[in-house]
Structure formats: structure tokens, C-alpha cells
Amino acid sequence: MKLCRLSVGTACSYQAVCCWLKEFNKGKESLSDCPRPGRPKSCANEQTIASMRKYIDAESYISVRELSDTNGLSYSTVYTIITEHLRMKKVCAPWIPHLLTVDQKRERVRCATELLKMFEPPSLQRLSDIVTGDET
């Protein structure tokens, strides 16, 4: 009786013990589960994430479908790795980092500083020297 009171919440259920006994009688020698067939639930491990980064760094115009076919993963898994783990998004055609790196921030500051220097002293005539555009 003392043993039952001490093991409340930590002891296995009667059904679990019966199930184990049945497995041992069949010849099983361990309580560990056998490997299950099929792909693991989560394919987004460090190795696949690094592989995706390598492919995208090599070719930023690669499509999710191409990455999916190359790595043998589903389209949705590849898309999740790119958008959630690598924090990238598709702008027009290339994959670009969602957050700017320190070098990219420095380059933007340098370009903006050069533009400001061009406008010293400020005048409306200097506005015609700037050409703007977008990536589309």
C-alpha cells in the first residue's frame, strides 16, 4: 500500500503494463518504440535550413518548386523554411532577406549621405539630377 501512495502520478497504468507484457511475450526485448515508416514530422532541421540558405545564396532567383524538387521536401515545408526560419520574402523574382544586414544598412547610410552632400547648398535645380525608379 505504501508503494502505491509513493508512486501516485509516476507509475504506469495497468493497461500500459499489459501492453508491454504482450510485447515481451512476442519476443520484444526493449521498451523503446520501433522506428516508424515515412518522413519525420518536422523536416525543418538545421541541416535542411542550411541547405536552403546555400541554394538561395547561390541563386536568389530559384523558385520554391525548384528547391522542393532538389531537396525532396514538400512545397509547403520549403516555403515555411524560407519565410519563417530564414526570414526571407519574394520581391519580384529574387529571394531577399526580410531584415537588412549591418553591411546593407551601412551602404544605405553611405548612399544617403552622398545624396545629401550633392544638395549642399539646397536648390530646386539639383532635384533634376536625381533619377529614381523601382524594381518592378
TrEMBL record:
It comes from Elysia marginata. It comes from the Eukaryota. This is Transposase. PANTHER family: MARINER MOS1 TRANSPOSASE-LIKE PROTEIN (PTHR46060:SF1). The lineage of its organism: Eukaryota, Metazoa, Spiralia, Lophotrochozoa, Mollusca.
